[in-house]
Design goal:
single chain, alpha/beta, five-stranded mixed beta sheet, 59% helix
């Protein structure tokens, strides 16, 4: 015989539940999707998880949908569970996107994430979150397995001095926004390409902007950084005596980065033995 290990409670007293301070906000769209699902397939009991303070750890969307429809809420109590467990649960289940984690760490007082949140408030609409994640992390462009994983894990280091520097860079990148938005596609690749070009010896930031503006009609949607660098490089090098081969420089940079990562991984493996 199976053993009963958890008590599932039922209530229509929605006010007894509390939102955990650092938990993510529930979007109206998510609640509407749950409501629509209930309308289509019926109400399937799926208990939400709360701690002893009745703070919701998992199931804020289901709670809001149940309240909207006047349905009972089923819940289980997991004493001692807090925001760290909440983040870990959503990290493993993939329920939160990167922005949810940023907002959670920021609400918890982490200055690195507060700085990123402030940067996002100012430049998200113009540059997009992927570009801002990469800038805050100090990488050329955002990738789900690299920059995103680091930010989700709460390991972002983005102090006030870096925030001030990032704002200056974002203001410069924002000057390219009308061009990049017209092109369409993955705009973070173009912004990443501009950022990389600025690190190359001999690249003039004023000339880069002026030359891209003059030849912007030649720019097309791209699928990777190399293509973006080729496009922008053609603009920069057009009728220029001293050409810079940005794609070649990027390949050198990428090879060095991969080599460094392999060395670090090898060191970790040796230490684990």
């Amino acid at each position: 015989m199976d053993k009963k290990t958890t008590n599932v409670y039922e209530t229509t007293n929605y006010r007894k539940f509390k939102k955990m301070l650092d938990n993510r906000e529930v979007s109206p769209n998510r609640v509407q999707k749950i409501v629509k699902s209930i309308d289509q397939v019926g109400y399937v009991m799926s208990p939400i998880i709360v701690n002893e303070k009745m703070e919701v750890i998992d199931g804020q969307g289901r709670l809001a949908a149940a309240e909207r429809l006047g349905l009972p809420v089923y819940y289980v109590v997991a004493p001692g569970i807090g925001i760290e467990e909440c983040r870990a649960m959503n990290l493993n289940q993939g329920n939160w996107d990167i922005k949810d984690f940023v907002n959670s760490y920021s609400a918890g007082g982490n200055i690195n994430y507060i700085n990123l949140t402030n940067l996002m408030k100012e430049f998200e609409k113009t540059l997009g979150v992927n570009t801002l994640y990469a800038i805050a992390y100090g990488d050329v462009y955002h990738s789900a397995g690299g920059v995103g994983e680091r930010i989700r894990s709460g390991l972002l280091m983005f102090d006030s001095a870096e925030y001030v520097s990032a704002r200056k860079l974002c203001n410069y990148l924002a000057e390219f926004a009308p061009i990049v938005n017209r092109i369409g596609g993955r705009r973070e690749l173009y912004y990443g390409a501009v950022r990389f070009m600025l690190t190359c010896d001999g690249c003039d930031r004023k000339a880069l902007k002026e030359r891209v503006v003059k030849r912007q009609t030649s720019l097309l949607p791209v699928a990777n950084m190399e293509q973006a660098l080729d496009m922008l490089g053609d603009c920069y090098n057009f009728r220029c005596a001293k050409k810079i081969y940005f794609s070649t420089e990027f390949k050198k940079w990428l090879d060095a980065k991969i080599h460094k990562q392999k060395i670090e991984q090898h060191k970790k493996e040796r230490m684990a033995v």
